[in-house]
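Service request form, structural biology core

Requester: graduate student, group of Dr. S.
Request type: structure prediction, single chain
Budget code: on file
Notes: please return the result as structure tokens.

Sequence provided:
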Amino acid sequence: MQNTSNNDSSVGLLKKLWSRFIEEPLLIFTAIAVLIFLGDYLISLTKNDPKAIVITPEIREDIKQIYINSLKREPTPVDMKILIDRWVDNEVLYREGLALGLDKGDSSIRERVIFKTLSVTQAEITLPKLNDNDLQKWFTAHEDQYDSPALINFEEAVVSGKPSKDDLTNFINALNGKGHSSIDSSLEIFKDRPRFTIVDGYGEEFTNALEKLTLKEWVSLESKMGTRVVRLIGVKPGDKASFEPLKTKVYTDWKNQTAAELSTKAIRELGKKYKIIDQGAKQ
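Core staff response, request fulfilled:
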């Protein structure tokens, strides 16, 4: 009978403690914080390779969403490769910065640690010697960056929904004054757009085909974002650049680009000590 009495007392005490626990928000939050800390600690114990950089599906999705929010379009596979490489470079810089103790005073600010490590890396870079002839060759290889670009005027009829091929044909005929169509659409006008911006948005093949269209005739063209209904309004030819008037700017551009390339190379050398594990890559 005494054991039963003791058990009853224990149960009663536990009930009182539980009742007090759920009535105290501070205790609840403290318990949750402890559980999160223990969870993180246990996860850290399971990391067998501290030199591994893991690209999780969640990281890929975050990178993709940042790109979409910035440029208002889906990244291409090439875009994603560049973005993932950049993320890995930053992760290498961050870890190397921690190893060098560059997080002192900035332990909670990842970007500052990355910037400090990048500055240390770039300080060790020596640019190659360059004469006028070499600079002229570099200018020729990058001449399209200095040419005044062709300006393209065109319009796009943005259709609603996903019409069938026949419905889209009828829609285009209606736009050209031949028949009728019930497809809803909106009009986007692109005025004096530099050619390279159209290439960036729609692709090289689309831009090449657009430039050759008959003026003011609606057609469908394939782009890297799918089928588009467009008509060309006009093209203003660009002007070729001359080296001598741009010599100072060309040198500055060469210097910046070469430094960036050497910096990337140095970071990739640092990254060789890490194992890159891409959990979200398509097999």
